[in-house]
Amino acid sequence: VLGILIVEDFIATIALMVVPLIEQGGSMMLIINKLILVLVLIAVIFVSATLIFSRFLDYLSRNQEVLFLFGIGWALLLASLFDYFGFSLEIGALIAGMSLASTKYTFELGGKMKPLRDFFVVLFFVFFGSQLAGPISFELIKTALIFSIFIVIGKPLIVMSILRVFGYKKRTNFLAGSSLAQISEFSLILILMGFSLSHITQEVMSLAILVAIFTIGASSYSIYYARSIFNQIGHLLNLFEGKRHQSLSEVKEEYEIILLGYHRMGYKVLNTLQKMKVPFVVIDHNPKVILALNKWGVNGIYGDAGDKGFLSQIEWSKVKLVISTIPDSDSNIVIREYLKEIKSKAAFVATAEQPRAALELYDRGADYVLIPHHLGGDYAAHIITSFGLSKQKYKDLGEKHLKELKKGKEKSEYL
Q: How many Å apart are CA 411 and CA 415, to the nearest integer?
């Protein structure tokens, strides 16, 4: 979803650069020369940021307030610079943000600017709401609803079709499509530019704002209930099932233990399973992880554990233990319900980030639920009880832990 949004924003950025140039008039060659100028300007900014920002920001970071003010000043400077060359202020501000994001202080600057950003986001929508002027006729509302229905239903179908070509599973395609069932804020900025340049009428401006209201409101619910909706209609979406990595999940062997999810706690559990000398398999939705595990001699199946269609492909007759390190409650509920449907007697160990989610999983019939921060607290209490005030014991355990972290980091970087 983030990848698609970045592409959308990139296309909108190009439009924001081209529209003011067309408004200024001139030949096509003049417009091309202007575009070359802005590309050179962007390249100079990024090269300068790479060469100068590192040391300069190291100096400014001694004072957090100065670093924050520099971020604001840099955005205003580039916005003014682009405006001087005949481009939009938004492009300059966007380039400023991109150049700051390439520095090691991006998270610190982002944290400082978050309250300011949230404040202006509110003003952004208040401003667009104030542009909903003129008579709001029944015909205008009907047209907005038609466009909104197309976006809420048609756009996800387009996204799902494209992702299917790239080989993604139908569940991934559906969740991605559901998350994109609205118009973006960049489209509002583009509409506003057209309105300010008198390219579009007040009626079209009002129509765009109504469509934004309808689609943003509808997509809020489509995102929240996407997994539940998929569980109900997933069997109707086989048309959007990608096939690129299908061969990775066509393994029909018998296992006694199934580990769902390799990352997070999964790689630690894997070490214990290898020592148990019982047949087991690791299931993960990242094909890169599965290919790496297979290379290491570990049985791995590519697939989405939250998809009942995928779960039905696995041989469950000999399974005695199912361990899910997936923190997503909906996925764990789907797994538990499937085990109940096939009348499996396997023990089910799930993972939850919060006690509330753990209680729900217990209500659904989970045998044990791992809550990582609770287990961490129990382990810390155990260490303190065992080691007391002995510095050497803590140091020895720390050295052992450091070796494990380095080993885990090597595997993560390989993946």
A: 6
